[in-house]
Each structure stands twice: as structure tokens, then as C-alpha cells.
Amino acid sequence: MPKEFFTVGALLYKDYDLLDVNGSLRMLGSLKANFNIITITQTGEHVTSFTPQIANYINYNFENCPDFDILFIPGGVGTRDELENSVFLDFIKQRVPKVKYVLTVCTGSGLLAKTGLLDGKKATTNKLVWNWMTSFGPNVEWVRKARWVVDGKFYTSSGVSAGMDMVLGFISDIYGKEEADKVALEAEYQWHDDPHWDPFADKLPGTVDLSTIPS
Amino acid sequence: MPKEFFTVGALLYKDYDLLDVNGSLRMLGSLKANFNIITITQTGEHVTSFTPQIANYINYNFENCPDFDILFIPGGVGTRDELENSVFLDFIKQRVPKVKYVLTVCTGSGLLAKTGLLDGKKATTNKLVWNWMTSFGPNVEWVRKARWVVDGKFYTSSGVSAGMDMVLGFISDIYGKEEADKVALEAEYQWHDDPHWDPFADKLPGTVDLSTIPS
């Protein structure tokens, strides 16, 4: 395995999806010698996820956050508020040009799309709220049937659990398929290693509006 | 859906597995009207998971923790230390008789087994470290090929990602299959809804000793 080492900056916000964050980061962090992960919120305080009362411990705020190599943006019901939060979107805009990779899960793709930085790129997002979400990136080449999509330094995934498959795909691209298979096997996880595998594109009509889901 | 409401006490410890905890709790917490979840460590301080520097926010310590209905015990590399921690094992012993259900993921089953409270019960655990782990419960009826096992109030699962399947099984048992299917679908998660599905029992020989894995 190459010795390439990355610091990952995970950008959290109120009502983020707990599995988006911790499923993906757990797979990345399995290669302990290759990744350090820091958590960031706007104020540096912890924010509760959409799972009642559960939160991740937070390391940095937008002011004191150091440079990192990979920007990680999860999705979640809270996306609907951050789409209107210019401070949050500005943080993404400032950091994207400085990082080697951007990984977004679920509706995190919509937050990135809203900044305009995905314009002209291929990407995917959550299938339940597809229509609403993709409306924030009218110039993005949205790929509806995909577990995850890679375009240059941008990795975007479908909803929630797709983040784990995408991150295993990222590990495979950087360190080789054997490493990704090993991480999945030792987590007793059935990795969907084909980025075109996506039964949910057919099962979910994509017509739910996230702003209608109760807090 | 019945209106049965549960408070879940999630028992964390240093080097717990991040997905064991947050994958399972995310599935449970999808039924927001039915679950509240509290996090507990021995001292009430947060502890880092085995994923570099990532931690959950903690609500209670062993002294000030209120009653709860479901005891949730995750696995992780840190199990090896807690197996020798009598204060930790005593907390489990005191709480198990008071709760309606006990849910353990991965090597969390070994922690429960070490207390003797699984004696004579059917249970399963992680397949990578099977031999080492089951040695802590010589009087447990260990079921090697199983995604999860139910015996009375005890739900035990195989390694890491199996926790999500088990919790969906628990939701199905309490609230009906339709509810569990909906949670899985909206998380774009391919639920393995057959508790006998377990390809990892054959793929992993079970001969790894957790105490040999570097910190």
C-alpha cells in the first residue's frame, strides 16, 4: 500500500445524517496509518444529528480549522437550513480549491452544487429527494442511476448508506482494490463495488421535498 | 405503528467501533417518535473510537445515568481492555436485569458473555475474532453462521455492519416488517433481512486474536 497520508476535514451541521458521517469515516479510518480525521462545525460546538440526541464530538470551528487534504460533506435533513446559510456555503467555497479531494454523501452533494463548484461536473445525490436536491445545481450533469460518481477530484454518492460504498471505491482508487476488499470483509460489510449498482433509483421516485419532513 | 416508546442507553468505551454504534443507532433513531438515545461512558467523558480521533458526544457517566429500556453494547478493538475492567462489567450486570431488551453488536456480545448473563442463551458475535471472543462465554450456545440471533430479550449480531441488519430486525419484531423496510429503503440500504444470511462465517476463519491488533 502506498504511504500517501491524508487529513480529512468532516464538515458537520445540525441534523446531519449520523450514518452518512460515521459509516463513511469508519471505512476511511480503517486505514489508520493513512488517515487522520478532524470534525468541524461553524461554531466549533457539537450539533445533534437527525438521530435523536446523538452527536459527534467536534474539533474545530470555521475560524481555527487548519488545512486538510480531503473535504468530507455529509447529507441529512439539516441540509435544508444550510442551503440558506451563506457562512456555511462560503466555507465550502474557500476550502474546495485548496483540497486534493472532495467527498460528498447523500444531500451533501446538493450543498456542494449550490456553491456552483460542481457546475459542468458529473455527480449524484439522494434518490428520495432527487428532484428537490438537483434543483440546487441546474448546471451539474446529474447521474440518476449511480451508487457513486467520480469526476476529477469530486466523489459524490447516493443516499446515506451509499457513502460507505463510495468511500470503499475511493480507497480502491488510491490504495488498490485489495485494500478496499479487506476493509469491507473485516467489517463484515457486503460492499457494492460497482458504482452503477443502484436499485434505489427505480424504487424511489425522487419526489419528496426535504423541507416537508418534520424536525 | 404501536406507540411503544423506548429510551436506549448506548454504552461506549475507548476504541469502540464507530459503525457498530452509529450505524445501529441511526437505524433505530429513524423512528424518531419511538426512541430517545443516551450515550454513556464510565466517566461521562467522551472516548475516541478506533477510527482516528473520531468520538461521539457523551451524556452520562455510570453514577448519574438514569434508567433506560434498552441496553446497547457495541463492539470494537477496545473490547480487549473492557473485558478486564470490572467496573465496566459490573455496570452491565446491574443494568441487564432492569431493561426490556439488550442489543449487542460484534464483540459487544463477548462483553455481555463475560458477565455470565448470556449463559445458556443462543448468541452470535464477530466472525474475524470468533475463537478468541467466544472463549469468554464457554456456557453460551454460540451460533456461528448467523447475521443476528434473538433469544428472549437478547439480540446479538455478527461483526460491525451486521448491527444495522439486527436493528432493522428488532424494528421489524416490534413495529412490523413494513416499518423496517421503510427505514432501510429511505436510507438506501440493502437490508439483509434474513438472520441466517452470513457469508462471512465461511470467509473469515475466526482465528484472529483481538489483542494482537495494533492500537
Description:
Two copies of one chain form a homodimer. With 215 residues, chain A is α/β, with parallel strands linked by helices. Chain A has one domain: Class I glutamine amidotransferase (GATase) domain (Rossmann fold, 3-Layer(aba) Sandwich), CATH 3.40.50. In chain A, 31% of the residues lie in helices and 15% in strands. Chain A contains eight helices and eight strands. In chain A, the strands form two sheets. Chain A has a six-stranded mixed β-sheet with strand order 2-1-3-4-8-7, with helices on both faces. In chain A, helix 1 (18-29) runs parallel beside helix 6 (162-175). The longest helix of chain A is centred in the last third of the chain and has 14 residues, at 162-175. In chain A, 51% of the residues are buried. The mean pLDDT of chain A is 96. Chains A and B meet through helix 1 and strand 2 of A and helix 1 and strand 2 of B. Chains A, B: This is DJ-1/PfpI domain-containing protein. Chains A, B: Residues 14-171 form the DJ-1/PfpI domain.
